Hints:
Blueprint: E1 6-9, H1 16-26, E2 30-33, H2 34-42, H3 46-53, H4 55-72, E3 76-79, H5 84-87, E4 96-101, H6 104-110, H7 113-117, H8 125-141, E5 145-148, H9 152-165
Parallel strand pairs: 1-3, 1-4, 2-3, 4-5
The protein binds adenosine-5'-triphosphate, (3R,4S,5R)-3,4,5-trihydroxycyclohex-1-ENE-1-carboxylic acid (SKM) and magnesium ion.
Residues 10, 12-19, 35, 79, 81-82, 110-111, 115, 119, 151-152, 155 line the site of adenosine-5'-triphosphate (ATP).
Binding site for substrate: 35, 59, 82, 135
Catalytic activity: shikimate + ATP = 3-phosphoshikimate + ADP + H(+)
Enzyme class: transferase
Amino acid sequence: MSAGNVILTGFMGSGKSTIGRILAKELNTYFIDTDNLIEYFENRSIKEIFEKEGEESFRKKERYCFEWIKNNVKNTVISVGGGFPVFIPEIKEAGVVIYLKVDFDDILKRMSEDEIAKRPLFQDIKKAKELFSKRDNIYRQLADYIIENRDIDGTIKKIKGIIDAS
Ligand SMILES: Nc1ncnc2c1ncn2[C@@H]1O[C@H](COP(=O)(O)OP(=O)(O)OP(=O)(O)O)[C@@H](O)[C@H]1O
Ligand SMILES: O=C(O)C1=C[C@@H](O)[C@@H](O)[C@H](O)C1
Ligand SMILES: [Mg+2]
């Protein structure tokens, strides 16, 4: 990867973690997932953080993560949490931002019950859908590139094209 970091954004279940991990391997570079990083630093799950301390506290931890990444991380594929760009609109300062846009119904089809259980803001499907609609605009505005409704291979191919051209 020639330039700095590649940052994947999008709603819960849009594939940021899955795609990011594969992409980093294929590019032979580093991979960071902010949700995993927070769980590692805290030695507990996001679900537990939300339950014990609430969302606001989680967002502070994301902010800390962002500052750390901005100051210390280069040439890395970074998958951020679904709300990360919403609460940290300066996200572009840390790299090229790619929004993985997937329709809500497709997200629902691909998420298992176990995966839904790990996501505190996905417990009520109606509320999750409203959140999805509210956030789409924000993701779009903060993205350098948008990739819509592709399978895993197609998404990775597109991202590689973006990296090669930049
Ligand atoms: N392009 C894709 N096509 C089909 N299924 C996918 C695709 N990308 C990811 N998946 C599947 O969707 C599920 C959720 O993906 P993933 O955990 O990567 O989402 P995420 O964007 O990181 O979500 P979160 O913001 O909650 O961390 C996984 O089971 C994954 O295998
Ligand atoms: O969309 C969100 O706000 C979230 C998405 C997940 O990746 C986690 O960061 C957490 O569950 C919150
Ligand atoms: Mg993820």
